[in-house]
Amino acid sequence: YKALDDWRDSKKPKALAIITMLAHAAKKAKNNCGGAANAIENGITDLSEIERQRCPDADTAANAFAELMRGILMSSPEQRQCDTAVLGQLGANVGRWIYLIDAWDDRESDKVSGSYNPFNIITSDISRASFLLHISLNEAMKAYDLLSVKSEDVKGILDNIIYIGCSHRTEQLLKRSYK
């Protein structure tokens, strides 16, 4: 869907090549995981419109990606019914965090290339970025704490990602930004 969007927007040959290479796999994935595929398609469409309008609000763009991630996690065939809402919250907040950390990290290269980046449109400072990143990650942690993970091995990996990896990446990026 990202390649389709790139092709529609700027007719990049690389995007067309990706579309061609992945056409069969995309069709198979849509047949097997229709809910996730629909969430991705709708999310990319919403994000593309936000980018085209050059929306100055980082929350608006981050929320579009949050809904994409919510849809993916809520459509997981591996979930138990009682975890659906929790997975939705986890997906939404991890999605917000992913969008925001990527946007903050890319703001200099996006400024040079002229690519959409909400942090550049309103020239956000590091305190705003820090607040948005930390609140999204904290909300993701709260949702994760409510999730019932049966396998200790899986729980250990997820704990490491949510509590250590994401936090470390946030602090690393913000520390680099202060310099």
Short description:
This protein is mostly helical and 179 residues long.
Word description of this protein:
It is a single chain. With 179 residues, the protein is mainly alpha-helical. Helix content is 83%, strand content 0%. The chain is built from 8 helices and no strands. The longest helix is centred in the middle third of the chain and has 30 residues, at 84-113. The chain is globular and about 45 Å long.
For the sheet with most strands, the description reads: none
The number of strands is 0
Instruction: Catalogue the unreliable spans.
Output: none
Helix content: over 70%
Q: What is the approximate shape?
A: globular
Counting copies of identical and different chains, the oligomeric state is single chain
DSSP strand content: under 5%
Mean pLDDT: 89
User: Whole-number radius of gyration?
Assistant: 17 Å
Global structural class = mainly alpha
The span between the termini is 36 Å
List SSEs in N-to-C order.
HHHHHHHH
Number of helices: 8
Topology:
Elements: H1 2-10, H2 13-32, H3 34-53, H4 58-74, H5 84-113, H6 118-121, H7 126-146, H8 152-178
State the main characteristics.
179 residues; mainly alpha; 8 helices
